[in-house]
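User: Fold both of these, please.

Assistant: Here is the first one.
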Amino acid sequence: MEHTETPLATADKKRIVLIDNLRGLALVYMVFFHFLYDMTYLVPTDWGRRALAANEGVVVFDTASFILLAGVSSAFSRSNLRRGGRLLVIGILFTFVTAFVFPGQAIYFGILQLLGCCMVLYGAFEDFFQKLPAPLILALSALLFALTYHITRGYIGIDGLFQWNLPSELLQNSYLYPYGIIRGGYASVDYEPLLPWWFLYLGGTCVGGYVVQYRDRLPKWCFANPLPPLSFIGRHSLWVYLLHQPVILAIVYLIQWIFHI
């Protein structure tokens, strides 16, 4: 989840509303997917199960887009350390709340914790990263993202080229889940580990750097706001993320009550 402070509008530069719209679009789809999830596992319904299965591939692309945009927006932040720390604290509180309300479906290292950690890491080493050539970071980020994409399945590698299975000692460890190394039986409704997503976020910061560098050359439609509601959601995505699940639950239980599902 990206924070409401980014991208920042400066005194002499207009806000790049396209980033808000893209982030808002990604969040709208995320809310839709969570609705399907609730209609599958909380009610449940057959149509919800079928729709959820049909959207499983799309939600991976949507998550990737959201994380990439978070990296892009970090180039506009005054303090990624402060933003990341605040987001990380909120994410930890979110884990405690979900563990109390939904013990069997608690969120351990979801999107909030992921982005909080990514922002803190980038903020702590921002000067170092900015001294490196952006093409080098982009290339390494893409390669490492591809290599670690299947780490939650217990191996590192690229399908069709090579595969290295993680040692069983690592897979039996219960505390490596923030890095994508999970043991059998691990479950979390929203699980987005640092590997591989940190590398996608880091690549996004390079894209954001290019956006800042060539801001004056961007076409006018990047600054236009044809869909104010969508850009509003994108600017306030943290609040939308925090509040959307209670609203969805109310709608789901209302549907259950009306149709006696």
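And the second sequence with its predicted structure:
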Amino acid sequence: MSSEALNGDIPWPGTTKPSGRVKFLNRDKGEQLGYVLKLPIKSNPVSALPEKYRKTTKDATGLEFGPPDQVLYEGHFQFTLRDGDGFVLLKMDGPVEHLSAAAENSVQGTSDQTVPDSVIQRTKEVDVGFLVTSCNPCQVQ
């Protein structure tokens, strides 16, 4: 998991690399990358949260909110298509996904971008990463 686009005030939980399957799908728009992925994310212990998140707060109607059970992450999967020698043929982003801490986070989808046939024929490996663009209840520092 990469947080390049976000400098949040809640520490990142432990995670592993995404696992799953990818394949090229012939769609009306052309060949797209389809995926079935899993990205397990460990929980965010309340004790690790900044003090401001560990308090109980009340809204204008008197409804009380306690510390968040888990953090929700918004971002997208990044796919790097490589040839047999490890050279990058194409990098592409998947659509926006919403993942949660303390969950297995299984997702299935397709890229919006089409993949040229010349790239498909030479692709031998697809690297997958997840780029976080925002989180809730994080606040950017």
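DSSP finds one helix and eight strands in the chain.
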